[in-house]
Amino acid sequence: MATVKSEQMDLLRFATAGSVDDGKSTLIGRLLLDSKSIFEDQLEAVEATSVSKGYDYTDLALLTDGLRSEREQGITIDVAYRYFATPARKFIIADTPGHVQYTRNMVTGASTADLGLVLVDARQGLTEQSRRHAVILSLLRVPHLVLAVNKMDLVDFDQTVYEKIHAEFTAFATKLNIPDLEVIPISALAGDNVVNRSENMPWYSGPTLMHHLEHVHVASDRDLVDVRFPVQYVVRPKSDEHHDYRGYGGMVAGGVLKPGDEVVVLPSGMTSKIAGIDLFDREISEAFPPMSVTVRLEDDVDVSRGDMIARPSNAPKPSQDIDAMICWMTNEPLRPRQKLAIKHTTRSARALVKDIQYRLDVNTLHRDQETKELGVNEIGRVQLRTTVPLLCDPYSKNRTTGSFILIDEATGVTVGAGMINSSS
Amino acid sequence: MTPTHTDYRLSQLDQLEAESIHIFREVAAEFEKPVLMFSGGKDSIVMMRLAEKAFYPAKIPFPVLQVDTGYDFPEVLSTRDNWVNRLGVRLIVASVEEAIKNGVVVDDGKTSRNRMQTGTLLHAIEENGFTAAFGGGRRDEEKARAKERVYSHRDEFGQWDPKMQRPELWSLYNGRLHEGEHMRIFPISNWTELDIWDYIGREGIEIPTIYFSHQRRVFERDGMLLSESEHNPLRSGETVEERTIRFRTVGDLTLTGCVESTASTIDEIIDEVAVARVTERGATRGDDRFSEAAMEDRKKEGYF
């Protein structure tokens, strides 16, 4: 670790999921401990607290439960983000709580994840909870999934236990959209197959969890074909030195942009060419996701925040009618005719709920068409009408231009997460 | 022109930079009156660099705010001034000294100046009508900070309610506010201490000299090495001696300890940080030691 600088390292974001007692905190503690990312003062504090609470072991969950109320109740309430690095990669863990009532936190953690890690207890096998987590990860299009079969030490490292869970999960996963699945038998407590290969499971020939996390290929998950550049900020120096400078700051959401490329600005439909791409004081020859750059155009076309730069032959269609899956995140249910604020890429508007088509039972995948509202932590298919056109793609094509949030206009709180199926 | 990327992969440091620049631009576009909290420490210098990049070749479109405890290291204040002058941004100084004089905060002789920064800061935010304040907090620093959002909502009392945080999805940040409320913005949430040092090394930017190894007259208190200073009267049994040290964090000099070190270049500091077995705050910040939830409690009151 000492010799590798993060300059050359790459980044993997992963979200953890699992039921309350599946050993998630222990596993995260183990990953942090074995990658030497836990510091002595943190460990000492956890040891001291464990002693004062009368535990007869060091409770690694205390490392991750950061809030007073979490430590009091011994549960994780909210998403926390943790960091560790190995010589190969830096990792950002979205540590999401396992409780049923916190599905929204799982959605939050999964929204930015490259990989989802679902833990099951080998003694229990697949539970409703593990299925629900897999469904959410697949809905959120997290491209890689790891099912870690934990507590193998408590089933005598029995291969048949692992294989039964493996088979059951693979069968279930065929109903979902999970492009890459790895099933790894581990013991988080004893450290088997977490960082070091287990001698107790010679029958397992796959990678250890850490090896898999270090080597899973995530760069190819980005869309490098369809150019999508939501304009975020217009850079106008108004100084003598840069009097005529006019650039469009933003983060590339898809495709590769190059100087000389023909582009279209949406929703106006005006066309121009890319005159240059700036990254601070350098001109660069191309920009791709997720770079934050400033694009200059050859013509003086009217471009403002909320607009989108794309290719003339390959552009999203502006639309005010959106069909989307929504995860509802607040106690007051979502109902037809409700009006909400919507934020999609850099564009803000208002949205009217035209219809709630069905509520998805994330345990059985059953589509309930009778219920015409969505309660907290429920997911359903909804039709929206927006005040201004949104420049969107299906979420399955692009996680940036295909996603939005809904905001309660009275409280200002984020109440819904949306994934676009289609727009018309 | 830089060479073509053949594999279209960004290093993790480039990814972090891109994400932070995105956050800076989002706030500048959506908030009425943002301000950048700038102490002159390493994290806020990286923030300043990122803001410089986000709006280049335009100037940073908001002022910077320093909460001056009156006990700040002179080396840090001079670095602060160099940055402010070079970038041509407006510096607002909110002084704890003045806040005490004006009755904004109360000096009971027991509360640290660091803790009195909270009231001083909230007063400055209110007085100037700031609706968003960028802070250099990192989630790797401390377990309460690990729970922090990039956009952290504060009510009209400046309070943080960790149980009522807005879910943060994709890179869609929700900046809605009611009258009197403001948002704390943490663009470098996902950076670690090592990332900060790697970035300072890569960018070759100026940081206060006290981060590098030097000789200093210090004394030991509660297991920490503190600087000799008129603001820090010796207690019985404490003796001053000269040692070779450097600082891992900078803050109020009565509470910020230093570590023995011979690291005198960025590369040497990176090597030292990479093998450090104690967190920067655990090693050198007296203010985090009051209780297990010291940071959480201070943040609830309005600390950054």
Automatic annotation (TrEMBL), chain A:
InterPro entries attached to this UniProt entry: CysN_GTP-bd, CysN_II, CysN_NoDQ_III, G_TR_CS, GTP-eEF1A_C, P-loop_NTPase, SO4_adenylTrfase_lsu, T_Tr_GTP-bd_dom
Enzyme Commission identifier(s): 2.7.7.4
Domain Tr-type G: residue ranges: 9-238
Pfam families (alphabetical): GTP-eEF1A_C, GTP_EFTU
Leading EC class: transferase
PROSITE patterns: G_TR_1 (PS00301), G_TR_2 (PS51722)
SUPFAM superfamilies referenced in this protein's UniProt entry, alphabetically: EF-Tu/eEF-1alpha/eIF2-gamma C-terminal domain (SSF50465), P-loop containing nucleoside triphosphate hydrolases (SSF52540), Translation proteins (SSF50447)
Key words, A-Z: ATP-binding, GTP-binding, Nucleotide-binding, Nucleotidyltransferase, Transferase
Entry annotated with the keyword GTP-binding: yes
Presence of the UniProt keyword Methyltransferase in the record: no
UniProt protein name: sulfate adenylyltransferase
TrEMBL record, chain B:
Presence of the UniProt keyword Transferase in the record: yes
Enzyme Commission numbers on file: 2.7.7.4
Keyword set includes ATP-binding: yes
Alphabetical UniProt keywords: ATP-binding, Nucleotide-binding, Nucleotidyltransferase, Transferase
InterPro entries: PAPS_reduct_dom (IPR002500), Rossmann-like_a/b/a_fold (IPR014729), SO4_adenylTrfase_ssu (IPR011784), Sulfate_adenylyltrnsfr_sub2 (IPR050128)
Molecular function terms, GO-annotated: nucleotidyltransferase activity
Ranges of residues in domain Phosphoadenosine phosphosulphate reductase: 34-257
Family: Belongs to the PAPS reductase family. CysD subfamily.
Protein name, UniProt field: Sulfate adenylyltransferase subunit 2
